[in-house]
Amino acid sequence: MYYRRKLLFAILENFDGVLTHTKLQKVLFLVTRKQREKSFDFVPYKFGSFSFQANQDLNTLTKKGLILNQTSKKTSEWILEKSENYFQSLRNEDQAAIKQTIKEIEGLNQRELIKYTYQQYPFFAINSQIANELLNSKEMGKVESQKRCLEELAFFTIRYEGIRLEKYLNKLINNDVRLL
Known about the structure:
The protein has helices spanning 3-14, 21-33, 52-63, 92-105, 110-120, 131-134, 137-145, 165-174; strands spanning 18-20, 43-45, 48-50, 67-71, 76-80.
């Protein structure tokens, strides 16, 4: 099994086997910020940081019957179906990153967790549909300052071979590429 998938299992194990889709993305994001070599990359998306790779891995694990994707009108959750104590199989630094993240966000509900990630990492809030609801004007100023808007048209080339989708998208976003 891929190490990155073990990380997903370990995070779910540490949250009693259940996390909403959004909360898992935020927790995973905060954990990866503590990793030297990040298991997942993220892009600024509708509700902040989002990893397409993590989402795909979770869907794959669902198809294999290891995780349940439960969706209702009010919520969507990832539920651990089988636990093999993947936390213990992680590197010590990743175990520490999960423990530190849990301590860091203890007591935060989902909206507070989203707000926290926006405050700590404003770049990932630039495409958020709810940032205005969660952040004050000073915090929104930090988010706005992360957006690049080039006035002049420019030709831009990008090396994409061998990089993950999220890194590729971030290169486009960081260079204000509007037409590909």
